[in-house]
Design brief:
The complex is a heterotetramer, with 2 copies of chain A (154 residues) and 2 copies of chain B (83 residues). Chain A has 154 residues and is α+β, with helices and mostly antiparallel strands. Chain A is 33% helix and 38% strand. Chain A starts with a strand and ends in a 5-residue tail after the last helix. Chain B contains 3 helices and 5 strands. Classes of the chains: A alpha+beta (154), B alpha+beta (83). Chain A binds chain C through residues 10-13, 15, 19, 21, 23-38, 91-92, 105-106, 108-109, 112-113, 116-117, 147, and chain C through 10-13, 15, 19, 21, 23-38, 91-92, 105-106, 108-109, 112-113, 116-117, 147.
Chain lengths: 154, 83, 154, 83
């Protein structure tokens, strides 16, 4: 399931809905991304007051659905979920959540990390950080691209 | 042709989206970038470093050599930074 | 943090408490284990009505604290949490939760999976499954021992 | 010496815990198992397959050869199945 929304989400309620009545699910691997107060841009950490996540409506849903489908094909998942917020967020706010259920714990972990690595480089979101009233677009990190490349099949 | 701009590409051009009607010889994403860059200083700044840009055609990532047509939706933006 | 309890837990509230005011935390990797309605014992799946988790009070806390300390030493974690329930549970109930926060997403995932793999073979819990009024102690699985061995340092 | 039994070890012996006073020649976890196995049919059944058992001394996992003393807390149980 894919959710792209401005509103916050309740992790417990989302996971309960995902496994509701699905008693074959033995475990859920989950990742939750939060807005950090300090971010390293070009190596130097800077305190931020807020960030605004811009996205490309339509393409976002298409990319996230494609990433989820890819995970479903590569691992034996009984359920999966991607939630990504957009709009203005402050430090500590939840940004993103991925969750994968599988009978195999290791598969759930791998698929959940795969979702995060892929959406970091494939989902059309851009972060604008606010610091002392100035806005700065965040640069993409090479480490995210490297993380995604781990999952490439030749 | 519908064009969309995001993040600092949008900021530099000063537009989030527009309709354009490029001449027939603008056949690829790369051609379109060259054609747009000549439209004014904001465009020139946005397309000054093509290697820092990404493009999508009809909401799928597209390479510079990808063909485009009048009915396409084409978007330009920096590498994504979500998650 | 270690919690050994009979009561259910609220995943969202636990994670919020873990990252409360800790604005350097950019992400949390989490695993939640649930009671499955069917379990494969000796290969054949059987429907269960409930299970009772017995544990060794004192040793449980000691082992879980040791496992958490080991994870803290091996990965750069800014926070971690292990919750394990005991007592009678029915299919769909939450049994266990592990969570790890790190500035590095991959480290958070690895540490979270490490906690699960280790507690599966090191934490003194035993499952008694009830089926049609009969109780049967669950056998340990070789795959859990194999999963733990992955993390051994020579 | 305080002894604790869990899961089917407890069920077979019929006790969750007890105090025992083994003779001085019972010096290791393995010695204790042999000594306990002779205490009755429930004990014999519980300790019939030592390779299926695990032991802890003072709440740490212990091997068969681990030494024990009167003041120790010793527990016997099957391989753990939590999580």
């Amino acid at each position: 399931m894919i959710k792209v929304q401005a509103e916050d989400f309740d992790i417990g309620a989302e996971l309960a809905a995902l496994s509701e009545g699905r008693h074959e699910i033995g475990g859920l691997a989950v990742f939750v991304g939060l807005v950090r107060a300090k971010v390293a841009n070009d190596g130097a950490p800077a305190a931020i007051d807020a960030m605004t996540l811009e996205h490309y409506p339509g393409m976002t849903e298409k990319m996230l659905a494609g990433i989820e489908r890819e995970a479903q094909e590569r691992w034996p998942l009984s359920a999966s979920l991607i939630i990504h917020r957009y709009g203005r967020l402050v430090p500590g706010d939840r940004i993103v959540m991925t969750a994968c259920a599988s009978a195999h714990r290791h598969a759930a972990f791998e698929a959940c990390e795969f979702l995060m690595d892929w959406l970091k480089t494939k989902a059309p979101f851009w972060k604008l950080e606010e610091q002392d009233g100035e806005g700065a677009w965040v640069d993409a990190r090479d480490s995210d691209e490297a993380a995604r490349k781990r999952w490439e099949t030749s | 042709m519908k064009l969309l701009y995001f993040a600092w590409v949008k900021t530099r051009i000063g537009l989030a989206e527009e309709e354009v009607d490029p001449p027939a010889e603008v056949a690829t994403v790369g051609d379109l970038m060259t054609w747009l860059a000549a439209r004014g200083p904001g465009y020139a700044a946005a397309f000054a470093e093509p290697e820092r840009l990404r493009a999508a055609v009809n909401q799928d990532f597209a390479q510079m050599a990808a063909p485009i047509s009048q009915s396409d939706e084409v978007a330009f933006f920096p590498p994504v930074t979500g998650g």
